[in-house]
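Suppose a colleague, Dr. K., hands you the sequence of a protein chain of 127 amino acids and asks what its three-dimensional shape might be. Before reaching for any lab equipment, you can write down a predicted structure in token form. Begin with the sequence itself:
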Amino acid sequence: MNDEIEAMIARMREFGPLPQGAAERIRPLLRVRVLEKGAYFVRAGERTDKAAFLARGWLRYFYVDAEGREFIRYFCDGNDFVAALPALISRAPSAYSIQALTPSTLVEFRYEDWLARLNIQSVVVHP
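The predicted structure, expressed as tokens, is then:
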């Protein structure tokens, strides 16, 4: 399952060159996770501390209004990063869910570990 991690690092390099040794520093933080169809990466109303790279599969970001109607924010079809970013940054419960529409393979990591390993300070937004 190292192919998924290498795909993530290759995707990161598409954004620009990585700092010297960055790939080696982040590898120990990464964990490959498979979500079955219908499983959640993040559930609305829960706190999360994880982000991921979607190596394979389809995910949907959605929320449910007060009347119980579902609204799709967008879909993710692989080779991209996924997170409930506002919830990660604010450390508040997520306003939306991220759910697998197909069996999906992710490379998961704890957001704070990622920032610390790369010597980046987190931006904390207080409500």
